[in-house]
Design a protein that fits this description.
Helix content: over 70%
Strand content: under 5%
Order of helices and strands: HHEEHHHHHHHHH
Strand order of the largest sheet: 1-2
Length: about 280
């Protein structure tokens, strides 16, 4: 009775690997597009770090009280890389929506292949791309003065939390793309994602916001990842002062896992029901 599930798992893994290579091959044919995607967060980091850094008051380590006693670029980088992971949902959405609109997804559905491999292949490829983008941004950050202070294990844990957030955003992007099916609607997604990204603790202390917005920012999944990575990197942050801030690491794990638990099965089910 255990042979059949094992065979299906191997079949799904093989098909996922094939479709992951397909996505990587498409990127290899469009190096300029891939290079721009990798350099865009670096450009944002340099712009925020050098254009706005001199005017920013930094946290001294508690209660959201600003101070000039911390390095702005060390404060900035965890928020910037977390934003990069969040905005990756647009890349996933566009790629899946283009395949759906062009009929590529329908052709895959007609082939004798694993039903889940199309979406899992995209997820694996996007996660690999995000790992490279994360390495590029962290490398750039090191060049402009950022550094982790709590050792390699804590730094690796921070990187894992960032990739976990990206993994959750992948499945959100896949589901929305299969639901809406039109690549041009990515503008609607941007209108929703960008305010969600900035309504967080990435750049501004939630304590400085109006009460209702401070609550949104405090419980924002992005805020949990930003606060947790700042703590693990040993970089300055806004301090505690609220339950979400005091349990940032736990929430940085639970929020993405909850999103994956919701949108992964919804994505697979939606793909199976395309055309019905």
């Amino acid at each position: 009775m255990t042979v059949l599930p094992l065979s299906r798992a191997r079949w799904a893994a093989a098909d996922t690997a094939v479709l992951t290579r397909r996505t990587l091959a498409h990127w290899a044919r469009r190096p300029g597009e891939v290079l721009f995607g990798l350099l865009f967060p670096v450009l944002l980091l340099l712009m925020f770090g050098y254009l706005f850094g001199g005017a920013m008051a930094l946290p001294a380590g508690g209660g959201g009280t600003p101070s000039d006693g911390a390095d702005y670029r060390e404060f900035l980088l965890p928020g910037m890389v977390a934003m990069t992971m969040l905005f990756g949902v647009e890349t996933t959405y566009t790629a899946v929506a283009v395949d759906t609109a062009r009929g590529v997804t329908d052709r895959f559905r007609s082939l004798p292949m694993s039903r889940a491999a199309v979406v899992t292949g995209r997820a694996v490829a996007d996660l690999l791309h995000s790992a490279v983008a994360l390495a590029v941004v962290l490398g750039c950050g090191a060049l402009v003065g950022w550094q982790p202070h709590r050792g390699p294990l804590a730094a690796l844990a921070a990187v894992a939390l960032l990739l976990l957030l990206r993994f959750a955003m992948i499945w959100l992007g896949v589901y929305l793309a299969l639901l809406l099916r039109r690549p041009e609607t990515v503008a609607v997604l941007q209108i929703l994602v960008w305010p969600l990204g900035f309504a967080s603790n990435a750049f501004v202390a939630p304590a400085t916001m109006p009460g209702w917005l401070a609550a949104v920012a405090a419980w924002n999944p992005l805020s949990a990842t930003v606060a947790a990575t700042r703590d693990l990197f040993g970089n300055p942050g806004w301090g505690a002062g609220s339950w979400p801030a005091e349990h940032a690491v736990a929430l940085a794990v639970l929020w993405p896992l909850l999103l994956v638990a919701v949108f992964l099965p919804l994505s697979v089910r939606r793909w199976q029901r395309l055309g019905r």
